[in-house]
Amino acid sequence: MSRSIEQLESMVADLLAEAKKQGASAADAAVSSSAGLSLTVRLGEVETIEHTRDQGLGITVYFGKRKGSANTTDLKPAALREAVSKACTIARNTCEDDCAGLADPQYLARDYPDLDLHHPWDMDTDQARELALEAEQAARDYDPRIRNSEGATLSTQTGSFIYGNSNGFVGGYPTSRHSISCVVLAQDGECMQRDYWYDSRRDWRELTPPRRIGEKAAANAVAKLNGRKLGTCQAPVIFRADIAPHLLRSLTGALRGHAQYRQSSFLLDSLEQKIFPDWVKVTEDPHIPRGLASAPFDNEGVATNPKAIIDQGVIQTYLLDSYSACKLGLRTTGNAGGVRNLAVTTGDLSLEQMLGEMGTGLLVTELMGQGVNAVTGDYSRGAAGFWVENGEIQYPVEEITIAGNLKDMFHDLVAVGCDTDIPGSVHTGSWWISRMTIAGN
Amino acid sequence: MSNTLDLARETLLSPAGIDDNQLQHIMNRLMSSRVDAADLYFQYSRQESWVLDDGIIREGSFSLEQGAGLRAISGEKTGFAYTEDLHLENLLEAASCAHAITRAGENRRIAVTGGQAVQPLYPAANPLESLPDEDKIHLMKTLDAAARAADPRVKQVSVNLVAGHDTILVVDSEGRLAADLRPLVLCYVNVIVEQNGRREQAGTGGGTRGSLAWFLEDDRALGYAREAVRQALVNLEAVDTPAGAMTVVLGPGWPGILLHEAVGHGLEGDFNRKGLSAFSGRMGEKVASPLCTVVDDGTLPGRRGSLTVDDEGTPTRNTVLIENGVLKGYMQDRFNARLMGMEPTGNGRRESYAYLPLPRMTNTYMLPGEQEPEEIIRSVKKGLYAVNFGGGQVDITSGKFVFSLSEAYLIEDGKITAPVKGATLIGNGPEVLTRVSMLGNDLALDQGVGTCGKDGQSVPVGVGQPTMKVDEITVGGTAV
Questions:
Q1: Are B424 and A381 a contacting pair at CB < 8 A?
Q2: Looking at this predicted complex, what is its ipTM?
Q3: Fewer CB within 10 Å, N side or C side of chain A?
């Protein structure tokens, strides 16, 4: 069992008191605890049963404008005292930093909504096995070319966390997360391909049925069989919905305060600049009930709020925590710890209709490697997918790269599809970009 | 080893009051059903990291991680549980959870017999205490100043300094004990340069299993600062990369990440046992040009990927993976080795007690050839010379791998010419080494910054190779 909210609250209070005792002028602390079960079946048999039980604590102390932090997985009193003491030693050695400090108290989340994030699943290993087996069996029954499996996994986890700081903020809540995933191999002659599908939810009742997850994993793997390379060319590219979130994350990464003040962003000093076509709106909504990335306050206790990041193609805001806001002379946007539940305006076109309108080009279903340069926006990644002619998929392609620059890619966005049925915290359909360079033979 | 074992007991077991009798008691609980093998893994880790950014020592953090992972294996099934609390009742509860993988069966009694002597490959001393805090701060400020002084176009510098110390103790169901005290330090410098409105970045660094004082020897860390600036300035001049298939010459050292991605992962035991790898069932077959001999060697003193014993207590070794082009061996942990009827090779590694061990690489490199590097460059009419890389990735089933170049040049008429930007190499693991046509005499290992991810677990690794010419590989660029 994970620890109760009350236990975590008193731990945070003790930590803040200890920090004060050791001479810190301000401090904040976060404590979390979770427990769960993860079960994998492979080829019809149980392969692993893992009982997970995680706990952790992080504390940051300030001595005026100097800062030090520590974290530990050992929550016994002696370890907590040591963590505080180490953080204090470090703080005495760091430099005075005018922007260091807790969030401005006026922005703290005084009362915040219950976002319905806690739905424990009363599940024993037998039930977990049944569900995982259902997913894997559906995949193996889908097509005779599904000849091997990496397995299907069911995992369920519940936990709680508390954040508190010496300005009197204390807040926290219990959460849960449940997922089912399946990875299978398709084989045809010498050619072997693997692919997967998954779903992950706060409320287990909303999970995609295991059978559908298995079938989708199998369909993905079979479709990749006997891929070809392409000749080097320039062509329109559609990023299928499940990989489109990568493009949005490159956008939000470039708008992070840290990237701005360090001048390490390809969208440097870009507030109010138009980087997308008129119809594009990108929003963040941290308050979606049961949302995977939902949070009523950020990692500094600052209230989160729904907002537009891009409107009519124009950058509306950077994504700031207190430190980067101070560096840039702005005010925090409640994004300490990241962005929560992104969404982009979607059009009316299904993926099939979009392929039809594109005519000839590349549908990308898989990206590989880290070829995104955050400073310049240069983009060059390994890819696999399907070649499209006359609006229809002709054959799978692999061992190619797609390249361009993110600024051009955003500018050249033709449409976003309405095929938004993807797992995860980002709401988007497929992205159609008018032209990129494809490297192959 | 006995000294190592005593130190590990003192750190891990004594504070919780665990003695050999109690270890046996826990192991018996773990084994009290139809279990083939089991182990207890105790770990105590401390890490300290410092960040210099924007001209000041901006933050530092300390982290403490401690716990025990308990594993019970029955055939191909594994039960696993872990706990941060090392007291007997928690360990027994975790043992009950882990052994629930099997149903009732006979009991086996385990006697803890002690450990085998293994010569440590690195000093036992805690690197967190290897330099006074003032000296750590001074080093970082020196690097910041050196990078800024190197060129007026340097606009931002960040420096990371990390020191960690890991104490581990493994008890297995044969009653064997093994322990290891593992230091690991890392220093990394990242710079951003600007010229006429164009900005570029580059980073470089190094690390070892040893003391932070290593960075001061021969001005080693100062070298990272200068090298980061040099690479970033090169990038300012870089032109668009030509796209398409071409001859690529890979430089020595870090480009060995190609081996790690293209063949290393595909030769890990678990993937081959399950038939998931593009190399499955190909033992004894030709998978590379006869020039190529590739090994995984966990025994190199002080190297980032080295381990005295792996996380199952097996001493590491030098395993030949490919010999003169022929597939010779897999990297094995005990679990997969047993199921495949092979020997464990000391490649059983885990990120921490909270994860199951997997077959993982240590230091993977290609042995040198006979040619002068200049000769190799001269032999290329038109191609790419790739010197430094970002990260890579592989799909072990299809064999497709990809990695990003952070420093590369065109080769025209046997000469290195313009630097190119933003290039990615993509290829097929089982094919790429068959196209190796020339190999240099300049084997180098990387400087010690590599981290490998698999199944959500990160472990430190090393790579290396001599200058290597690959006759054809697909280069992803923007210029057609």
A1: yes
A2: 0.91
A3: N
